[in-house]
Amino acid sequence: MDLRTYYQKIRDIETKIEEAFAIVVSLETPDGGKVGTFTEVPAAIAAKMLVDGSARLALSEEAVEFRAQQAEAARAAEQEAAAGRVHLSVVPTSELNQLKSAVRTLQG
Fold first, then answer.
1. In what helix (H) or strand (E) does residue 75 lie, and over which residues does it extend?
2. How far apart are CA 48 and CA 22, in angstroms?
3. Which of 39, 46, 80, 92 has the most CB atoms less than 10 A away?
4. pLDDT in tens, 48-94
5. In a 10 Å sphere around its CB, with 0-12 CB exposed, 13-18 middle and 19+ buried, how is residue 99 labelled?
6. Burial per residue of 20-52, b for 16 or more beta-carbon CB atoms within 10 angstroms, e otherwise
7. Rounded to 5 degrees, what are φ and ψ at 57?
8. Cβ neighbours for 46, distance < 8 A, ≥ 6 positions apart
């Protein structure tokens, strides 16, 4: 393949991609590429993947669903990270003794 033609095709496709980051769906390739994997990539890389035949652009419904799944995964990861954080409070010994005595008077 002529390199000028190859890179011209990439530039042409890149200008047709409306978003800065496109969602692409992988296609089966002879070198072992798996079909159906969704990925968000810059427009330039998406254009190269389209020209190489290793991916196709996701349909708008597929892209919306993929982004929703990514947002949910990010939210779940943030919740898990927040649950793992330990909140500590340092209390001076004198305040601790006052709290202990206040609890004893309430119990007794």
1. helix 60-84
2. 12
3. 46
4. 999 999 999 999 999 999 999 999 999 999 998 888 787 778 889 99
5. exposed
6. eebbbbbbeeeeeeeeeebeeeebebbbbbbbe
7. -70, 140
8. 13, 14, 17, 22, 24, 55, 57
Percent of the chain with pLDDT over 70: 99
CB neighbour class for 58 (10 Å; exposed up to 12, middle 13-18, buried from 19): buried
**Could you tell me the two tokens for 81?**
């990270």
Burial class (CB in 10 A: 0-12, 13-18, 19+), 100: exposed
**In this structure, what token pair is assigned to residue 66?**
């993929």
Q: Tell me which residue has tokens 């033609």.
A: 5
